[in-house]
């Protein structure tokens, strides 16, 4: 069964360092998302991406964050200068979307745990 | 705009007892509704979904949910809890007014199953 894969599973970094989290969405999906979950808290929407551009972003997704799909298969989240409060589990998800014949259900990766020291 | 409210951040049941996790939604358009489960240290996986048609939908692991438009609810149930059901459960509503159908998630309910 197709799945969303994420790397790394866990990354530890120093405050102020740049981090890139990588995701390979399901190949025929059209919409790509990043969510984050701070330990013990709810799942928060960061950004959605469609047709090689951001379609929506939350207030969390400030100038320190960026996303790109560099090669048609990978979907990356970059945090330019990490802060302590960026420590969280980051989930990538993909979807066919309604236009692609789905119901909007999301297929999630296993997550990348980011620890900022 | 859409929103989801999950009543009860923590629910504890005994093994073999009925599981009931509550979800109410708000949507200006006919909603698509979902329940996801997150086991410890894992990603979210789809349990079940409602789009159109039959209002009682069945999912994996013996779970089911009923869409009640008049109550704007989509509560998740399972007749008999297993220890393996201990997890975080998220209700979500999809924006059917857009091509993406972006989902809005509730805050989650932690289910504990006591032996």
Distance between the termini of chain A: 37 Å
Fraction of residues in β-strands of chain B: over 45%
What class, by secondary structure content of chain B?
A: mainly beta
Share of residues in helices of chain A:
under 10%
Rounded to the nearest angstrom, the radius of gyration of chain B is 14 Å
Average pLDDT over all residues of chain B = 92
Which structural class do the helices and strands of chain A define?
Answer: mainly beta
Rounded to the nearest angstrom, the radius of gyration of chain A is: 14 Å
Number of strands of chain B: 11
Strand content of chain A: over 45%
Low-confidence stretches of chain A: none
Outline of this structure?
The complex is a heterodimer of chains A (117) and B (115). Chain A has 117 residues and is mainly beta. Chain A is built from no helices and 11 strands.
Protein model, in words:
The complex is a heterodimer of chains A (117) and B (115). Chain A has 117 residues and is mainly β. Chain A has no helices and eleven strands. In chain A, strands 2, 4, 5, 6, 9, 10 and 11 form a seven-stranded mixed β-sheet that branches. Chain A has a four-stranded antiparallel β-sheet with strand order 1-3-8-7, with no helix packed on it. In chain A, 0% of the residues lie in helices and 49% in strands. The model of chain A has no long low-confidence stretch (mean pLDDT 92). Chain A has strands at 5-7, 10-13, 19-24, 31-37, 43-50, 53-57, 65-68, 75-79, 88-95, 107-108, 112-116. In chain A, a hairpin with a 6-residue loop joins strand 7 and strand 8 (75-79). The model of chain B has no long low-confidence stretch (mean pLDDT 92). Helices cover 0% and strands 55% of the residues of chain B. With 115 residues, chain B is mostly beta strands. Chain B is globular. The chains are: A mainly beta (117), B mainly beta (115). The A-B interface holds A 4, 31, 33, 42-43, 45, 48, 50, 55-56, 91, 93, 95, 97-99, 102-111 and B 32, 34, 36, 42-46, 49, 51, 90, 92, 94-96, 98-108.
């Amino acid at each position: 069964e197709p799945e969303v894969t994420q790397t790394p599973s866990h990354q530890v970094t120093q405050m102020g360092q740049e981090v890139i989290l990588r995701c390979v969405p399901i190949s025929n999906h059209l919409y790509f998302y990043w969510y984050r979950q701070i330990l013990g808290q709810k799942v928060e929407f960061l950004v959605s991406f469609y047709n090689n551009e951001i379609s929506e972003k939350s207030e969390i997704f400030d100038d320190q964050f960026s996303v790109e799909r560099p090669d048609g298969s990978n979907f990356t989240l970059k945090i330019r200068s990490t802060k302590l409060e960026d420590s969280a589990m980051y989930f990538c998800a993909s979807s066919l979307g309604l236009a692609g014949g789905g119901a909007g259900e999301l297929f999630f990766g296993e997550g990348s745990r980011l620890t900022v020291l | 705009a859409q929103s989801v409210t999950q009543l009860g951040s923590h629910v504890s049941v005994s093994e073999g007892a009925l599981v009931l996790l509550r979800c109410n939604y708000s949507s200006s358009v006919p909603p698509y509704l979902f329940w996801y489960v997150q086991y410890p240290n894992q990603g979210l996986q789809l349990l079940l979904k409602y789009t159109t048609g039959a209002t009682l939908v069945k999912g994996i692991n013996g779970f089911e949910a009923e869409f009640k438009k008049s109550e704007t609810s989509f509560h998740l149930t399972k007749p008999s809890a297993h220890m393996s059901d201990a997890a975080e459960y998220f209700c979500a509503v999809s924006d059917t007014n857009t091509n993406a159908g972006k989902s809005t998630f509730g805050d989650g309910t932690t289910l504990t199953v006591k032996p």
